[in-house]
Design brief:
It is a single chain. By secondary structure, the chain is an alpha+beta fold. The chain has helices at residues 12-24, 27-35, 39-54, 116-120, 123-135, 160-171; strands at residues 59-68, 72-80, 102-110, 142-150, 153-154, 181-193, 196-207. The longest helix is centred in the first third of the chain and has 16 residues, at 39-54. The chain has six helices and seven strands. The chain has one domain (9-207). It is globular.
Length: 212
Amino acid sequence: MSEPFPWRDDALPAHVVDAAKRVAMLPTFVHHLAKASIERWVAFELAAVLDEDLRGTGWTSLVECGGSTGLGNVDLMLVPSVATITGSRLRPQTAPWPQGAIAIEIKCAHLADGESGYRFSLVSDLMAKPALAVAAGRPCERWLGLLITTDGLWQGSPNVAATAARAEQLRLGHLQPAPPLVVVASVSIPVRYGAWAGTAWLEAMEARQAGG
């Protein structure tokens, strides 16, 4: 029998955001955010931070879990350590799927590209994928999204005004993810990489029905 998960329901989103903030303190974070796709890198670094937090609890974090037809991969998953097999650094053993597993999907949105990335990036992951997981015989106890949003721009970028307007809407709480996604924990930090600078918002999101 596996150990109970150490963080109660309402503590998990804040803990994930805090762990993501520690990842964002790594010197390579701003380089990747400014120049490259960041989701896969964040998944591995976040797993490392969460593994340290989970040490001794009977739980561990794994990346790129799933790989089944129709489901694809889950970016990061928290599972009981007994669900892993010797030498498996990434995926849990696939039969049976770990009971009580917690799925975390990671996306990045650049406000310079418009609002849609912020509003809709996690909709499919938090709405469609849980049903696909059930159909594949791999349900998760909980699905959480981590959205990393930035208004960062290179000096001399042509869309400064539009990006600043979107960032102000986000700061005021007027830019919201598409329903039924809701922000359940968040933090913002300044980011700078040479001539690229701005703010990064790290937000945990869940799909919640009205009144939920």
